[in-house]
């Protein structure tokens, strides 16, 4: 919605978002060998939320200003994947919150 209202071209966000995505991939690879703490995992998930939200704005801007009408398949797929990744990150953050709540509740029940 913001992209439609602002009439700005957000193509300059592409390099910043790509760098952020490469950082997420790097931290994911490091996490396979050195597990992160819960708080660092939450920060990584929150950063991923911001990156994929930025990708939605970036790809919407590309749909408005870069893609031709005959490129509707690639445009819709890029936006679909952004929304899918954002949804998966939201689920990850919510499940971590639920796990933490259940862990605190089980500690109280033991006492």
From TrEMBL:
One of its GO terms (cellular component) is membrane. It is a multi-pass membrane protein. The keyword Transmembrane helix applies. The chain crosses the membrane at residues 13-34, 46-65. Belongs to the BI1 family. This is Protein lifeguard 4. It is found in: Membrane.
């Amino acid at each position: 919605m913001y992209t439609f209202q602002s009439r700005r071209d957000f193509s300059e966000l592409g390099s910043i978002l790509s760098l952020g995505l490469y950082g997420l991939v790097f931290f994911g690879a490091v996490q396979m060998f050195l597990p992160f703490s819960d708080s660092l995992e939450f920060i990584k998930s929150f950063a991923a939320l911001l990156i994929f939200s930025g990708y939605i704005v970036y790809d919407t801007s590309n749909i408005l200003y870069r893609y031709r009408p005959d490129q509707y398949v690639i445009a819709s797929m890029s936006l679909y994947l952004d929304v899918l990744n954002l949804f998966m990150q939201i689920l990850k953050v919510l499940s971590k919150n639920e796990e933490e709540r259940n862990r605190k509740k089980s500690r109280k029940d033991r006492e």
